[in-house]
Amino acid sequence: MTYVPIGHDATVYAPPAETPEPELYHPKTFIGKYIWSQDAKVIAIQYSITAIGVGLVALVLSWLMRLQLGFPNTFSFIDPSAYLQMVSMHGMIMVIYLLTALFLGGFGNYLIPLMVGARDMVFPYLNMLSYWIYLFAVLLLLASFFVPGGPTGAGWTMYPPQAILTGAPGAGWGIILMLVSLAFFIVGFTMGGLNYVVTVLQARTRGMTLMRMPLTVWAIFTATILALLAFPALFVSAIMMTLDLTLGTSFFMPGIVSQGKQLGYGGGSPVLFQHLFWFFGHPEVYIVALPAFGIVSDILSVNARKNIFGYRMMVWAIVGIGALSFVVWAHHMYVSGMNPYFGFFFATTTLIIAIPTALKVYNWVLTLWQGNIRLNVPMLFAIGFIFTFIHGGLTGIFLGNVAVDLALSDTMFVVAHFHMVMAIAPVLVVMGAIYHWYPKMTGRMLDDTLGKIHFWVTFLGSYAIYLPMHYLGFLGVPRRYYAMGDTYFVPDSAQSLNASITIAALVVGVFQLLFLYNLVWSYFKGKPSGDNPWEATTLEWQTADTPPKHGNFGPELPVVYRWAYDYSVPGAAKDFIPQNEPPDLSAAGAGVPRT
Amino acid sequence: MLAPGLVVWAKFVNVPDEAAEVEVVSQQWHWSYRFPGKDGVLGTVNSRFVDDTNPFGMNPDDPHGKDDVLVASQEVHLPIGKPVKMLLRSKDVLHNFAIAEMRVKMDMVPGMVPYMWFTPTRTGKFDVLCQELCGTGHFTMRGRLVVEDEGAFGTWLAGHPTYAQTSARVAGDAETGKALYAACGACHGAAGEGNAALHAPRLSGQGDWYVKQQLKYFKQGVRGAHKDDEFGRTMAPMAAILADDTAIDNVVAYIKSFPVAPASAAKEARSDRRAGDQYARACGICHGAKGQGIQAMNAPRLAGLDDWYLDTQLKNFKTRIRGTHPDDKYGSQMNLIAATLIDEKATRDLVAYISAMR
Amino acid sequence: MTTTLVALAVIMAAVIWWLVRPSIGARPWVEQRTLVPDPGAAGLPFPTVKLGLGVFIVVATSLFALSISAYLMRREGADWRPLAQPAVLWFSTAVLGLASVFFQRASGAAKSGPVARVRTQLFAGGACTFAFLAGQLWAWRQLESAGYYLTTNPANAFFYFLTALHAAHVLGGLFVWGKTTVRVLRGAGAPEVRMSVELCTLYWHFLLVVWIALFGLLSLT
After folding, report:
1. Can you tell me the mean pLDDT for A401-426?
2. B94, CA 20 to 30 Å: which among A9, A398, B234, C210?
3. Does C34 touch chain A (CB under 8 A)?
């Protein structure tokens, strides 16, 4: 692709119009500014802090369950019930209350208005309500640790019947609080989601066509649409399960003899719940993955000083993955007892989804190709993401293939796969994104050395954790087992492998504290960053103030003249041209339009 | 990659016509099995029929069910080289019948009967694991598949009762049992109250099914044969006195008539919250919230048992003196559970809590 | 799940058509000499709030489509005994239809007519909606007295569940209606409430469509 300097016709060029100041909510007090705030940036930070806080709880839970697996029968407070409760809460918190909330509520709120050149979200009041409902949902969830019986231990999938029968821990209070908390989360999220979608559609600044939006916005936008369409499935099933539990209906409950007692249920279908759950659950994977895709594209492009390779294809791949993600849900249910003939259809659709995904990976690699790479901390995390995502993606092809899945499902292989692809990969992006945008949020850089230590320990550590776990899965070690005991097919050496995984997990976990320390320390002592430390083109780096004030841009909204990826344009004075930099009028008539 | 995968899957989905049918019945946290018997047809079942005398939920009016062979054990045997279609039935929650070496697994869904098939090609013992989270005891839900030649399989199958036989069983005669009990009473006490000095546990109040099962275990050398089982070894020859199943039934019927008396040593009701919590989370799910024992869970009564006996047995399970014999149907679960008692104090607290139960 | 998939396919097709149309020929990497028409002003096809409501309606459609899917799948169960449909549901349907008509007329009045006409139509629409809810409650009472309890059969459970889900959406609509009516009573002019009235109209049409779908489903199966 060659670029030829382009001429501009001054007669057609329109200067930016005076945009009338939209009505913004102007806080008067400290509380109005930081607590009951309607500013998307403050809400974003509230979302992020809450999500990271509850995520730390889930991290500690993962340490505890790793301790049990690595060193069984050493810790008296981890009994079989507690272990299952840890597994369940860890999964649920990480997937929904951390990753979904952080990507959409946190990054979505912060980046969408800034990147599309809007003053704020279109419905600020709804946005504020969204956060407070989310916080309430988190508190309900945490409350379940303190109720009689403790939180639910039915797995994050909460399959009935066991989720609401006495054999599972937390089958009374725990599961009710979980279901109610999820319902609130969904209501709150819908309010936020409406905002993100409508803001992208309605509040873009002059010149910001859809196809000029940074991929981050595209990805968060698509993920939000997925979430808006998929979360109702969880909502419906949560309500129906609550009715089964409290009023004794039989939506999901067949005739059951539990612990020698006949229960009053009859005829319900547990598989129906699984269909509803995974109809939400599979898109949920992409709700977490798509924003990561988008953010990584932008970080790679900025730090390779190159435009993203195949921008249009990237957009379509995002949308295509989103659409396809609704027709693959039953690949989580190959061995669920549903009609096994479904396996043919869902295996096929599942492998088809690999095509747009692989396309994205190729495009990322080609973006790096011959780039002028700046190997800073966000870039390290972005490249780390490509590695872990490829690994997780490849094992996904194994599991998506129904005949292979027959042997591997419900083993540690599955655990390793989904942690690689939807835990480590997105979390690396979250961290990269925090290193990338922290300067904009606070006006200070995060410490580079600490960042590099943090990256290498996290990246190599996650391989130390999950590579051996694949092997355990091949051996046939099942997931969600409190202790293996004696099993013919599992050699004793598996136990030493488990111990080494645990140690790696603890080390990686502890180094996340270093990251938190870095966040706090740099807020006060970090190097001042200036407005655009990464020399990036997108609008959020062109604000008048850093951190941006309420209303984001100065008195005038920026006007966009170009796409977000004008890096290393031949003939340009700098190696990047911000989106809002007007075309060079002096060169009018010189050269031909580039194609 | 997809195409060969789908071909293999098609093979898995389409069961060969000559496959023999076997039903696997699962419940929290046990396996049991049902073979179709001579007529080759499995009788109909319904969860409505399930109770302590009919754990398989057999339809009493279905003629096909009469000759069904009921295997109330975690272990199943299969003949080598014959394709077998496993019909998977669950009584309560989702389970998953998985044999790692056969590379097959399928969920068992209450209200449905999923299936899977395979051909055992190698003799030996294979572990059966539950691989769908089914509650606290999930990790203790272990079964065993033994693949052997046709002859051995036939012998094994013939050793199990048909439905007609189990339902026709007559209750033991307590009067006849009274005479037999004279030998037991010397140690266990005239009213089955137990004797700490002679290391004889309380029998009164214990479920008859459990006493019967343990007597058979002692007699067959499943229990009390381990060289370190000091007190169990004294019981083994005693159980041998009982000549046959009828004698066992009779003595059990007599034991059942004992009044449920308070434990010998007067103890104060303890309210150790931690131990109570531990009991409720780990033990109570099977043994009942008040330690009353639940036959359907194969969990004996604990209330009324003396602390020294509980202590010995928990340690026996933990150190694998008890429960590891291949014919001990459900003992391996207690091995896994007792292993969670990490030290002397944890065991002591729990025992103190249980022994105060009434 | 087929129902849901069809509903989703329609939504997806709309989204993709909307997306492909401008993007297929777009060459974002080409610097534009001219400014694209300003999307911030008259160029927007819908007012922002209306689009917001539109997106919400899509979310609610997904919710109902999934519930209907669950209904159809659960219906295969052997224990399914259809319930006798109370006749009062025809009355409910009629009044909800009337409410929709009144809201449509309120919309028209808000565009041109005096605010008094808006007020009358709004009241009539609200009254019809309350009548609808009363009709639903009455239907519940009738079913209950006829012995169709929530737990006796999944068909009953679904009937109560689906009608309650719909009624919850109606109540949400009535909240906005209440706010609008209060504004009208406090003397707001027609142009000031025009947007609120139009939003209510759109939402009530949606409620009517959902109800007809549910009612049809419940009576036909």
Report:
1. 91
2. A398
3. yes
Reported as half-sphere exposure (CB side, CA atoms, 13 A), residue A180 has a value of: 16
* B96 inside 8 A of chain A by CB: yes
| Residue B182 sits in the same domain as residue B151 | no
Distance from C-alpha of C19 to C-alpha of A337, rounded to nearest angstrom = 39
B205 and B154 in a common domain: no
Query: Mutating which of C32, C57, C69 best tests the A interface, going by the most A Cβ atoms within 10 A?
Result: C32
Taking only the tens place, the pLDDT of each residue in C15-30 is 777 766 666 666 666 6
A318-352: pLDDT as tens digits: 988 988 888 888 889 888 888 888 888 889 999 99
Tracing tokens 């009701």 back to the chain, one arrives at B269
B293: left (phi over 0), alpha (psi -120 to 50) or beta: left
Q: What is the CATH number of the domain that holds B128?
A: 2.60.40.420
Residue segments in chain B with a per-residue pLDDT below the cut of 70: 261-271
pTM over 0.80: yes
Taking CB atoms and an 8 Å limit, are A343 and B91 in contact across chains?
no
Residue position matching structure tokens 């389970």: B95
Residues B81, B111 within the same domain:
yes
Count of the separate structural domains present in chain B: 2
Which residues of chain A neighbour B296 with C-beta distances below 8 Å? 257, 259-261
Question: Each residue of B293-307: pLDDT tens digit?
Answer: 888 888 898 888 888
Distance from CA of C14 to the nearest CA of A (A): 12
| Cα end-to-end distance, chain C, whole Å | 17
Looking at the predicted complex, does its ipTM rise above 0.85? Answer: yes
Q: Which region, left, alpha or beta, applies to residue A374 given φ > 0 means left and ψ of -120 to 50 means alpha? A: beta
Interface residue B273 vs chain A (CB under 8 A): no
Q: Are residues B160 and B298 in the same domain?
A: no
Give yes or no for residue A589 having a pLDDT over 60: no
Which structural domain range is residue B329 located in? 174-355
Q: Which A-chain residues 340-359 have CB contacts (< 8 A) with chain B? A: 340-341, 343-344, 347-348, 351
